[in-house]
Design a protein that fits this description.
heterodimer; A: 241 residues; mainly alpha; Cytochrome Bc1 Complex, Chain D, domain 2; B: mainly alpha; two-stranded antiparallel sheet; 5 strands
Chain lengths: 241, 399
Amino acid sequence: MFATRVFLIAIVLAAGLAIAAPASARDSTSGGDAMARRLEACTACHAEEGIRLDDGYVPRIHGKPAGYLYNQLVNYQALRRRNATMNHMVSHLSRDYLYEIARHFAERHPPYPAAAERPGRALAERGEQLVREGDPQAEVPACASCHGERLTGVQPNTPGLVGLPRLYIMAQLGAWQVGARHAAAPDCMAEITAQLDGRDVEAVAAWLAARPVPDNTEPADAPVAEPPMDCGSVPAPDDNA
Amino acid sequence: MHRLLPILLLLLTAAPAVGATDSADAERGEYLARIGNCSGCHTAPGGEPFAGGLRLDSPYGTFITPNITPDAATGIGDWDADDLWAAMHEGERADGSPLYPACPYPSYTRVERDDIDAIHAYLETVPAVAHETPAHDLDWPYGYRPLVNLWQALYFEPGTPADTADADPVRARGRYLVEGLGHCDGCHRARGTFGATDTEADAPGAMIHGWYAPPLADPAQAGLQDWPVAEAAALLRSGRTEHAATMGPMADVVFDSLQYLSSEDARAMATYLKSIPARTVASPERLIGLSERGREAAMREGGRIYANACADCHGDEGEGGDGAPSLAGNRAVTMDNPVNVANMIRRGGFPPATAGNPRPYGMPPFHQLSERELAAVISYIRGSWGNDAAPVSATNLRR
């Protein structure tokens, strides 16, 4: 019960908007009544069978934390993220329904697609370094410090980075660099990507897309350690937790 | 003392009564502002409500909607009720200069003083936001605002109650909402010279954000003349009935505005819309004729595409299914102008989520279809299961 409350508060805070907690969050059933049918507009592109990680683009949404997916749907609605198809799809859906959609996909765990081919050694080394250790000189924290040791994301709002197409990851990091993608302030990813050059972006994307998916693909319940930055879309740790 | 007591009591009871009237006015004003969809234009995507900044492209350049929150410096905090009345009724800003008719005051001018005062009371209660909106970015010579005085002299007449009078009180209420706050004509009627609304009974509709707002006079297009009142009212409020779904800009209107209609007002609007004398209105988009052989080829190819991509939801006979409207007898696909059905197929999307349809079914986008394939499947839908609309050529669908 307490966890649910923290979760709801987190979502509301993360959205940066004083909205009422979605009513549908109160029951834990997945609302199976034809949801798959209702959401064929989503799965036409975000298909269960996934996408080719070496040359595909559409990201996997299945199994990502519901809070993350919900935030993205709200961001598309508010044009904090720009993609003509996604902006159009969510433009007149209610917050309650967006949350239900997010939860629907968060609860599904279809098999992951095959990893992309491993990049050349130099690129792979730089990619692994940025993901695992970061670049302290450039003040870039390790991806794993927030996205989880297994890189499968952290509840409730931090997405997993495995099973995503290389081009999608590159495009997202680039979108943050040019201000076409935003997260709730303080927008950590905007600060981090500002420190990356083109080769870093390429290296991180190529290494992540080639990463074999771990056995346990569930998002972690908590980050490995104290997060290195204060991020608006990640709820602050609760003193009573 | 006992003579003072009643006066004291009167004062005690009167004071809260004034406050209650104010908040009742503001509450009524909130409802009316929703029906007028003020925030639809005066709120930018992701922006603060009523703080303006939405860019409206037009043939005259780009209008940037102003901040109408009660912020004194950047909003309309220093406007009193008379100022709002002058703006909405006469198209005049507080400084005496004219408003561009991008704001639908040619419709709002039919709104009564009492209702505008309520909207003013409501706007005073919304959070003040300091947000300086940029000046309009208009082409020469339209940026010269005094030209609007000339425009008003030629094309604008402040409204009178007689404009929306009707012997039937329900129909009168409906007409008042449709032609006043609802400003339906702002999209459902073409605009002629310098943006003046075409007032002819057989005026075609207008293009809005790449969609066609079909005329309300034609029962083969957006006219509701042949619909039961209850079904028409349900479409306005929920954006979805058994046989129809609103998509495109109309879905925005339902989501932002019409879903908040009281059932009485929805019924009144439906009653009036139903009473508009029926006309056949020609489409501004002229369809290019197809030879009989061309039509047959399109029907064959369209039939294949339909069976693969559409029949699963819309049914083998276009009868519709869970969440998917029937296409047999659906005006959105059979009306002359094919731009809306082309948009729906290319872009897909959801009807609005409303109290009457809280969890809408979505249509996948089919942007991978070529113009020829799109024309074929549209021609097939327009010519099957009793639908008898002319086929569409790829040239008509060129963007």
